[in-house]
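Please, structure for the following, as tokens.
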Amino acid sequence: MVHATVRERGTAESRGYVRGLKREPDMGEVLLNLDRKIWGIAYSYSRNAEEAKDLSQNIRLRVLEKVWRFRGESSPETWVYRIAINLAKDYARAAMRRRHRETELDEELPQAPVDHDAVLSLRSALQRLSPRQRQLISLREFAGLPYKEIAVTLGISLGSVESGLFDARARLADLVRGHK
């Protein structure tokens, strides 16, 4: 493979595409087609519609900034999902650090009344899943990805996706019912 110089990075040939053999993806079109799935991934990590909107926009911008890095080793959709998941994880880690700092600044936070609403119960249960289980549930239930895409996106086998989702759903059901 020919190594591209900085100036050549933007050309199709330097990214491994050869005219007539492999069509260069239109990332704008890919992003439009994946708009709801990107938002679903963003929402599953932020748990806030407004923040999910902002995070989705950051994901789109990152994809467009890094499109020259797409090598065609996976589908454009899988490449976008990977970027979305990585940015969403970064967002969640930063949000956790912010909350931790804010909590340290407050002497004692008042306790919020317990709300037995099903949505709050589900959100709480989701937070108590392991990161991998939460990721599997998010990609399947919020982003609507098929099992095969989840496997490719996470770099795990289809069987691992199936068994992981089975375990995650069982754990989620137990948590919602109040079992630990």
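The chain has eight helices and no strands. Confidence is low (pLDDT under 50) at residues 1-22.
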